[in-house]
Each structure stands twice: as C-alpha cells, then as structure tokens.
Amino acid sequence: MKKVAVVMFFAIVATVLVLASCDDRESTNEIPVGVVLPFSGTQALIGESMRKGMEFALEEIHESSLLGDQKIRFIFEDSKSNEQSVREAYTKLIEQDEVVAVLGPFSSSRTEDIIDIINKNKTVSLSPTSAAVGLSARSEFLFRSSLTVERLVPHGVEESKRELNYTKVATITNADDTFSQSAYDAVKREIEKDRSISIVSEQTYTVSSSGELPDLTSQLTEIADAGPDYIFMSAQGRERVGILIQAERVENLESPIIGILLTTDELKDAQEKEDGAGEGALTFTVWLPAIDTPENRKFRNEYKKETDEEASSSTARSYEAVRILAQAVADAGSTDREAIRDAMENVRLENSIYGSDFYFDLNGDAVYEPIVGIEQDGEFKILGQ
C-alpha cells in the first residue's frame, strides 16, 4: 500500500508540474496591458470612444504577424476623472495585475497625478491625449502620442496668421486645468513674439466640482466689446462645446473661435445644440478626418466598416497609441518593463494616420506635423487646402 501511495504521490506531483509549465507557457503568450480612462463622470463618452479605438487597433494587431503568437490583453480601469481614482487604478494595475505598460490617462491633470507611481515602479505609461508642456520630461517612463501645445501652438499661430492676417485677439481659459493653462501660456508666448498682433481681452473661468461650465456671458460680453478678430479658447472637451454655444448667444460677438485641440465631434455637437455655433472656427490639432493619406483613409474606411460609426479624434488617437505600444513591445522582443521603455524611445511609425512619420523626442513627447483646420459647412477642412 505504501508503494502505491508513493507512486500516486509522484504521479500527482508530475501532473502539477506539467500543468504549471503549461500555465507558464500560456502566460508568456499573453501580454497584460493596463488601460486607464474615464469610463464614468463628465468624460465617460470620450473614455468609451477611446476604448473602441483601442480594441479596434488590438484586433488589427492580433490579425497581423507583429507579435508572433503573443497577444495583448487589456485590463481596463476607470479613472473617474479625479486624482484619487487615477492613482488607485495605476497602483492596482502595476502592483497587483503586473501589467507591462499602461495606456492613459486621458487628461494632462490626471497624467501629472501618476508620474511618481510610474517612476517608482519603472513602468511605461503612454497617454494618447495629454498635451500640456513639460510632463514627459519628468519621467523616462512617460510617453505621449498627442502633440503637446509647444508643438501645436507655434505652428498654428504661424499658419493661421499667414492665411487670415488677424491683428487683434482675445483669450478665454480654464484657469484650474493643467492643459488649458499650458495652452494659454503657449498662445500668449507666440502672440507676444509677433508685434503685429495684440491681445485685447484676457478672460478666465473655473468649473464646479461636477465639471459643469459656468455662465460665461460676462466674460464673452467683455470680449465682444473689445472687438477681436479671433478668440483663442483653451479648455477641455465638454467645456469647448459649451463655450462655442454660449459665444453664439452673446449679442454682437462675431469673432470666430480658435480652439486648441477642438475636434470635429465637438464642433458638430455645438452646432446641433445651437445653430451657427462654431461658424468659421479654427482648430490647432493632431488629426482630422480630412487628412488625405492612404493610411488615414484605410483606418477610417475599415473602422466604419467594422463598427458602422465614423472615427472620432479620440478614437483615432487611441487607435494609434495602441499601434505605437505594440510596435515597442515587438521591437523589445521582451515583456520586461525597462526593455519596453528602451524600445519606446526608438519607435518610428512611417505614414501614421496623422499624415506624417511618427517618433518621440528625447523627452518622450510625440513628433509629427501639426494641423490647422477651419470650419466649412459643419466640418473642419485643412486650412489653405
């Protein structure tokens, strides 16, 4: 009986070891990647749009040979658009789920909140949408695939001034938001460089804890009285829609708005709610449906075919972020976090959906060609084309 027991014991041990080795092989074929986006709260629609773009990109990558027999598995966490939640999400993903990298967060304010966490854990974080100046320089593990305002604004001011020859501008800015303040600072620097342009009115506002835009009639009336040729708007997405609507309702305010990263969806949303809102508006941005390149046409057509929806700016930017991270994982040939960081520094996408080659600068911020769009018949067309 003892011999039988011993034989059975070793048989069980052998079986456990075989199963464990199978689990190990399976785990090496699965690459856990965290995704931290706002799936609830005021930015939930944007978060869901970004999720769709990421999942569409992932399906495309898995159908290709880029990662061989490996597959990325997303682990989604809700940032809830607040500091505590985004920090809890990052800590869980990195320390408990042991992800190899994280896609997110959405905003510059939330990106700033997690820099210490990714530095402590030496884990790559790639934000598809953060654009405030200087954040990536604070971490060798932080990368951003959206152009920052220090690339968007100088190009935008130069292009728009050459085409439209404005001489007087006003500004309206969310004073409490990292991105908005950074965009305003960039606009002011560029305007002050050009002595032919003057700022005739500077207005600010803050939003409530619920994220609701306040009544800006007073600020917009002061702008109207100053008579600028254009109004520079530095604000987050839902706020941009609200400002376009409120500006249309202010008597004698005829000045078109220039929105930093204003999107086609935001423009259409405003025009659906208020006839004439955003007429003649400009955007300094990274992606538009109007980019007429083979890669962008392919992306838009296939996304439409797959989802029966038009691609939005947030969809496009999240789609490209996944492709960038997957390329880095493939180039690293490893799921080691620091190896992925090293590969990210050298990623280059030729003919990206942004209309030009994509790569990162020494700080981990994206480099490609910015775009200036102008509203025509409810769409953004590329200025000068």
Describe this structure in words.
The chain has helices at 2-29, 44-63, 83-96, 108-113, 115-121, 149-164, 178-193, 217-226, 237-249, 264-273, 294-307, 313-332, 337-345; strands at 30-37, 71-78, 101-103, 124-127, 142-144, 168-174, 198-205, 230-234, 257-260, 282-285, 348-349, 358-360, 366-367, 371-376, 379-382. It folds into two domains: 31-147 and 292-368, Response regulator (Rossmann fold, 3-Layer(aba) Sandwich), CATH 3.40.50.2300; 150-285, 3-Layer(aba) Sandwich (Rossmann fold), CATH 3.40.50. The strands form three sheets. A seven-stranded mixed sheet has the order 7-6-8-9-10-14-15, with helices on both faces. Strands 2-1-3-4-5 form a five-stranded parallel sheet. With 385 residues, it is of the alpha/beta class. Mean pLDDT is 92; it is low at 1-27. It has 13 helices and 15 strands. Helix 2 links the parallel strand 1 (30-37) and strand 2.
Task: Give a brief outline of the structure.
It contains 13 helices and 15 strands. It is of the alpha/beta class.
Chain-averaged pLDDT: 92
Give the uncertain stretches in residue-range form.
Answer: 1-27
CATH C-level category of the largest domain: Alpha Beta
Q: Considering the protein shown, what is the CATH homologous superfamily of the largest domain?
A: Response regulator
CATH topology of the largest domain: Rossmann fold
**Beta-sheet strand percentage?**
15-25%
Strand order of the largest sheet: 7-6-8-9-10-14-15
Number of strands: 15
Structural class category: alpha/beta
Q: What is Rg? A: 24 Å
* Gap between N and C termini: 88 Å
**Assembly context of the chains:** single chain
Give a quick account of the main beta sheet: strands, pairing sense, barrel closure: 7 strands, mixed
Number of helical runs?
A: 13
Order of helices and strands: HEHEHEHHEEHEHEHEHEHEHHHEEEEE
